[in-house]
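Figure 6 in text form: structure in, sequence out.
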């Protein structure tokens, strides 16, 4: 019943909260079926079906790889109270992505943006309270004014890429039910829908790849999730989950890899994107 409820995020936001635990629930369901006193044929057929469901949730490569000269985008929740940044700065300076999409930029770690200004002169920060979202780019912004959502959660700037103007969005969504994630998404969707043109979006969704929350954001931006499933965050108790995602236009060829935390509590995502 819990497993089935995790597919009902479009009916009630509690479904997305349960969807976080779909993999362990699939394992428990398979073991419970095997150990039941049901007829052997039914037991093993249903257990194999449950285990087959696990394959769809493994971090396997998906889609076509990016081509040489692709747009390089880095995404990470920076953790508002991070205690170390030297290794992170060294990684960014070595890899030099074209665009950085960052969340939880606080007064304490805003110095990172200043440190990167020579390399990333085009910066857009949307502070709200003690944290905010940011877009940093080596490539110039277009004449379109950058956007901060009316409700905290979005920083967006249109960047002049080699493949034309693209809206780059840094997104941070609230925790899921019983917290206000569904309401938060409803509040920021109008700001997403007002952006005209191709979109690349990276963020801490606080929701897994198969959630209704991610589906709503993808639909509002005309994008699809790219790259393999990831384990970007670890819950208390040691359960790894993937709640940080990159979205891009349908038909994008992408190569996406995780990076180490390097002072944060989320892993980063580094992507090479060949936009359609």
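Output sequence:
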């Amino acid at each position: 019943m819990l497993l089935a409820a995790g597919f009902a995020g479009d009916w009630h936001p509690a479904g997305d909260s349960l969807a976080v635990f779909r993999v362990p629930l699939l394992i428990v369901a398979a073991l419970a079926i095997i150990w039941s006193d049901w007829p052997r044929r039914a037991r093993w057929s249903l257990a194999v079906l449950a285990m087959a469901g696990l394959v769809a949730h493994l971090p396997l490569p998906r889609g076509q790889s990016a081509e040489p000269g692709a747009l390089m985008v880095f995404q990470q929740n920076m953790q508002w109270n991070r205690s170390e940044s030297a290794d992170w700065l060294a990684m960014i300076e070595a890899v030099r992505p074209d665009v950085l999409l960052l969340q939880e930029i606080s007064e304490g770690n805003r110095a990172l943006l200043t440190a990167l200004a020579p390399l990333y002169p085009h910066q857009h920060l949307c502070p709200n309270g003690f944290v905010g979202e940011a877009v940093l780019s080596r490539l110039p912004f277009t004449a379109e004014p950058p956007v901060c959502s009316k409700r905290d959660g979005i920083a967006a700037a249109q960047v002049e890429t080699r493949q034309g103007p693209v809206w780059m969005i840094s997104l941070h969504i609230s925790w899921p039910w019983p917290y206000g994630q569904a309401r938060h998404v409803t509040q920021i969707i109008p700001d997403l829908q007002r952006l005209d043109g191709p979109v690349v979006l990276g963020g801490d969704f606080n929701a897994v790849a198969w959630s209704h929350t991610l589906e709503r954001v993808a639909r509002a931006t005309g994008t699809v999730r790219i790259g393999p499933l990831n384990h970007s965050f670890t819950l208390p108790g040691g359960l790894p989950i993937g709640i940080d995602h990159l979205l891009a236009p349908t038909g994008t060829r992408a190569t996406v890899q995780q990076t180490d935390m390097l002072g944060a509590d989320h892993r980063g995502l580094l992507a090479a994107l060949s936009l359609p």
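Caption detail: The first strand starts at residue 71 and ends at 77.
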